[in-house]
Design brief:
The longest helix is centred in the first third of the chain and has 46 residues, at 42-87. This protein has helices at 14-33, 42-87, 91-101, 104-109, 112-123, 136-151, 153-162, 166-192, 196-216. Helix 1 (14-33) packs antiparallel against helix 8, helix 2 packs antiparallel against helix 3 and helix 3 (91-101) packs across helix 5 (112-123). The protein has one domain (14-216). With 219 residues, it is mostly helical. The chain is elongated.
């Protein structure tokens, strides 16, 4: 609703970062874990590496585009709500518009008087945008999403570049992936106020289950 630069959220919240890294890990693990190392030739290993990189490049771009579409929709929704608030003279309707725009938990914590005060302040905003426009922060966030998904590929595929034995490379790759899943869970646990070690272990289990589902369904 016409927020200033100082009021906008950070380009990527910690939860967004955890989610993108986890997504990238699951995508690359789907490729590496479905790769048969028995009798694998160097050429087949190279093809697998290119497939893993290409997969995460594609999904990094797709995820970034979806983020921009989401931000565009959020801005448009805020502009429409602001226009409705300026047109209405009904206090009850104005409170309803604001409540629908805010997160449910936040809206439920505000009294009718506070909602009316927000209404009056928003109506007085003079520099609100006329149409949704993606800001520099939005584009930077989209770039960050792409990089997180793409760069999460490299730690998992690096062993295949240094070990000639494909079986050994796969074991090392899986070990790195498990460590990264645990690190994501550990950080997420600390962020969410849960036990980091337990959350890390649960993340490893969850990641393994998601990779298994993707492989079974041909993902």
């Amino acid at each position: 609703m016409g927020m200033s630069a100082s009021q906008r959220r950070r380009a990527l919240e910690p939860l967004d970062r955890f989610s993108e890294v986890l997504f990238g890990l699951i995508m690359v693990l789907t490729v590496t874990c479905s790769f048969s190392v028995v009798g694998a030739t160097p050429r087949e290993v190279r093809h697998m590496l290119l497939a893993a990189l290409g997969c995460n490049v594609a999904w990094g771009v797709i995820d970034a585009v979806f983020y921009l579409l989401q931000r565009f929709g959020e801005q448009g929704r805020g502009i429409v709500a602001l226009r409705a608030l300026r047109k209405t003279t009904d206090t009850v309707e104005a409170r309803g518009i604001i409540s629908e725009t805010l997160p449910p938990f936040l809206a439920s914590a505000l009294s009718p008087a506070e909602l009316e005060e927000i209404w009056q302040r928003l109506v007085g905003v003079s520099d609100s945008p006329e149409r949704p426009e993606l800001s520099r922060d939005d584009w930077l966030a989209a770039l960050g999403i792409f990089l997180l998904v793409f760069l999460s590929t490299f730690p998992v595929v690096i062993p295949f570049l240094f070990f000639k034995d494909a079986k050994l490379a796969l074991r090392a790759s899986n070990g790195i992936a498990i460590a990264m899943l645990f690190a994501c869970g550990y950080a997420l646990g600390g962020y969410a106020g849960r036990r980091p070690w337990l959350t890390g272990l649960l993340m490893v289990l969850l990641g393994g289950c998601l990779v298994g589902i993707a492989m079974v369904l041909g993902g």
